[in-house]
Amino acid sequence: NEGKELTKEEKQRLRKEKKQHKKNKKDDKGPPEKEKEKEKASVPAPSKPATQSPAHKAPAPVHASESAAAAEKPAKSKAELRAERRARQDSERTSKQGKKEGGQQSASSKPKATPNELQPVVKRLPEHVQVDDPAALKKLAKKLERQQVPLRSDYGYKVSLFSHLHQYSRKSPPTLQISIPATVIHPSIVRLGLQYSQGIIAGSNARSVALLHTFKQVIQDYSTPPNEELSRDLVNKLSPYISFLSQCRPLSASMGNAIKYIKKEISNIPSQCKEEEAKGKLQACIDSYINEKIILASEAISKYAIEKISDGDVILVYGCSSLVNHILCKAFEKQRKFRVIVVDSRPRLEGREALRRLVKKGIRCTYVLISALSYILPEVSKVFLGAHALLANGYVMSRVGTSQIALVAKAYNVPVLVCCETYKFCERVQTDSFVSNELDDPDDLIVTRNGKSHLENWQTVKSLGLLNLVYDVTPPDFVDLVITDLGMIPCTSVPVVLRVKNVDQ
Amino acid sequence: KDNTLVEYFRAQIRGDPDVASAVAAIRSLLEFLRRDQSETILGLRENMTQAIRRLEETDSSVAVSSGGELFLRFISLTSLEHPDLSQCKNVMIERGELFLKKISLSRGKVGKLCHTFIKDGAKILTHSSSRVVLKVLENAAADNKRFTVYVTESQPDSAGKRMAQKLRKLNIPVMVVLDAAVGYIMEKVDLVIVGAEGVVESGGVINKIGTYQMAVCSKAHNKPFYVVAESFKFVRLYPLNQQDVPDRFKYTADILKTVKDLNQEHPMIDYTPPSLITLLFTDLGVLTPSAVSDELIKLYL
């Protein structure tokens, strides 16, 4: 054990020297998020001599023991690095102080307590996508290169307002650039990435559940390399996978929360836990997360929502939300008499899937396209919408077209109800749909009628840009009620729920 | 046993006509708790829930229902770990008395908060008869402020006329207007103050019929619309529109028991959505409608 400690210390010393060197060269300090990821990514760089997959997230007591031993570094830079590392630890490990951690880390709770007070709780924000900023692009490329994840190139001309977002073509998924057999990326992750990029798995809940199941597989196949700890190494192994998946399709808010949860659980595994036991524990954690946050939450939400559906109602739904479909099916089982109007829009035409599911159940449905919305709305008594994420200022992020429906419903004084599980609540604040969105394949907009496709050669026309947005953001004034598994709340109370949840954790 | 509870409740209201019906209900519930003979805590809770239901049948106002539920939560919120049932009961009775004391003072607190919003020379419009609004106006008059009050008649029970009488006793100049004259009078008034029977989760209020009309008018004229309510009136309802308010609140208890077809009856209350309300004055402080949900989460979770 002693020998291992010494070699670890040596490794960390070398690493710190290299980092200090790099920091002196660096001018551009990007957002702390990028810094964190860079630091993480810079560690498994092949240039490092002795280290294989170093545990860069060394807990404080190891630092403490090191500080006694190592005296080559100037004290200030070491403190700087330590503070940085602690900040990273705080943001990635929101674990309960002292209780869950093993003996080695119980001492770390004291030194960790002060940085918690010093820095307001550092929330992990999603990466700010800056595709038109060449420096940011270079950083991303370097990071992906180090993680040995292929970089996907953008496709086609982008509308200038959205030039800061990625726009990929469905015909060239990053899976084409992966060698067979995949060495760095686990094959089930490759499969998942392909399913995401081709749109085979779509919808917030479906993507999160698929992600969690794939992580279960990954954990099953994982084996701790010698001289490493599962709690630290597994998180490092997951980072290139997550980068790869976000190259295939940008991560959703629900997926982000799920990943945060898994990383927290992994780093909470006590160091003396045996590998099989740890793996079993993690699998159980993932199962309970899916069960609680998704399946049971939808049961609770159905219970509340059914109270709001009365006999004779005409309910309008948009697109295909698994939660709203579940609610309507449950209400129909409870013998409520209502009929449904399904509104659909191009190019995804997801409403057809919703229509299929509802008609199979026996519910009376009408199908219109979104252009007929103001025609059909005088008949409607309630609007039920699903959500992709609920932002901290009460705005609802959902499939593009949702805010239009909410706006017109408000004009007709029809109540708008949004149904959303609490695991989709995110700390982000956004007031418009431009800042952070997703651009889908522009070729989807090409339609072939009577053998002619007018937009086929859109690339040749220099002044033509095709915009295929995926999400939009609805202000809280248009939403009357949000139904979550915690109950029915007004849209402005989302920060209260987030606060209550953080207190619980 | 049920009859004695209802009789006690009615006696409370007769004895002190100025007391809020919810306070009278809670006093009766406390007395019920003292006299209760059940052997287990679960049995006690069930009896209490039954008692609350009985009281709701007697007086179908929203406040009785919300007050009862809050009372039950408040007394059972402590950890009842004592092995002896009578000790547990004593703890619950103590907490019940504490709760009662707190809410008896709430009307005074609201009055103190609100009267500063009434400036000298103000013209105030109010609806029907509310004891809390009366307290607020009393406090403002005691502060030597000069103001006039317009009260709506508030049919079908002409409660507005009773309110006018009480105000005249306080030497406040008051004028009774028709319910239909709200739009006419709105340009003359400076602010609108109404009471509430219940404050719902969205921040809207449930009050005597005609309140919604008044709120829409005041919004059109850009006059501030204030609601004064004690915190025990916060209820866990979330109506989306007028139809969504449960029937058991809309009509008086006698009508609910006797009449078959409720569509022929006229409702006694309506729902005012939060977008029309400027501020709510409660004993928890001055709140915006969106803060009500925050307070409710704190009270109930």
UniProtKB/TrEMBL annotation, chain A:
A molecular function GO annotation: guanyl-nucleotide exchange factor activity
Pfam families according to UniProt: IF-2B
Database matches in PANTHER family: TRANSLATION INITIATION FACTOR EIF-2B, TRANSLATION INITIATION FACTOR EIF-2B SUBUNIT DELTA
Keyword terms of this UniProt record: Cytoplasm, Initiation factor, Protein biosynthesis
One BP term from GO: central nervous system development
Job description of the protein: Acts as a component of the translation initiation factor 2B (eIF2B) complex, which catalyzes the exchange of GDP for GTP on eukaryotic initiation factor 2 (eIF2) gamma subunit. Its guanine nucleotide exchange factor activity is repressed when bound to eIF2 complex phosphorylated on the alpha subunit, thereby limiting the amount of methionyl-initiator methionine tRNA available to the ribosome and consequently global translation is repressed.
GO cellular component, one term: eukaryotic translation initiation factor 2B complex
Compartments in which it is found: Cytoplasm, Cytosol
Region Disordered, annotated ranges: 1-121
Organism (species): Cyprinus carpio carpio
Main location: cytoplasm
Keyword Metal-binding: no
Biased composition (Basic residues): 13-24
Composition bias, Low complexity: 58-72
Family: Belongs to the eIF-2B alpha/beta/delta subunits family.
Domain of life: Eukaryota
Name of the protein in its database record: Translation initiation factor eIF2B subunit delta
Compositional bias (Basic and acidic residues): 1-12, 25-41, 73-102
Subunit structure: Component of the translation initiation factor 2B (eIF2B) complex which is a heterodecamer of two sets of five different subunits: alpha, beta, gamma, delta and epsilon. Subunits alpha, beta and delta comprise a regulatory subcomplex and subunits epsilon and gamma comprise a catalytic subcomplex. Within the complex, the hexameric regulatory complex resides at the center, with the two heterodimeric catalytic subcomplexes bound on opposite sides.
From TrEMBL, chain B:
GO cellular component: cytosol; eukaryotic translation initiation factor 2B complex
Cell compartments where the protein resides: Cytoplasm, Cytosol
Keywords: Cytoplasm, Initiation factor, Protein biosynthesis
Principal subcellular localisation of the protein: cytoplasm
Record-linked InterPro entries: eIF2B_alpha/beta/delta, elF-2B_alpha_N, IF-2B-related, IF_2B-like_C, NagB/RpiA_transferase-like
Pfam family, one: IF-2B
Top-rank lineage group of the source organism: Eukaryota
GO molecular function, one term: guanyl-nucleotide exchange factor activity
Function: Acts as a component of the translation initiation factor 2B (eIF2B) complex, which catalyzes the exchange of GDP for GTP on eukaryotic initiation factor 2 (eIF2) gamma subunit. Its guanine nucleotide exchange factor activity is repressed when bound to eIF2 complex phosphorylated on the alpha subunit, thereby limiting the amount of methionyl-initiator methionine tRNA available to the ribosome and consequently global translation is repressed.
PANTHER family to which the protein is assigned, alphabetical: TRANSLATION INITIATION FACTOR EIF-2B SUBUNIT ALPHA
Subunit structure: Component of the translation initiation factor 2B (eIF2B) complex which is a heterodecamer of two sets of five different subunits: alpha, beta, gamma, delta and epsilon. Subunits alpha, beta and delta comprise a regulatory subcomplex and subunits epsilon and gamma comprise a catalytic subcomplex. Within the complex, the hexameric regulatory complex resides at the center, with the two heterodimeric catalytic subcomplexes bound on opposite sides.
UniProt record similarity statement: Belongs to the eIF-2B alpha/beta/delta subunits family.
Protein name (database record): Translation initiation factor eIF2B subunit alpha
Organism: Cyprinus carpio carpio
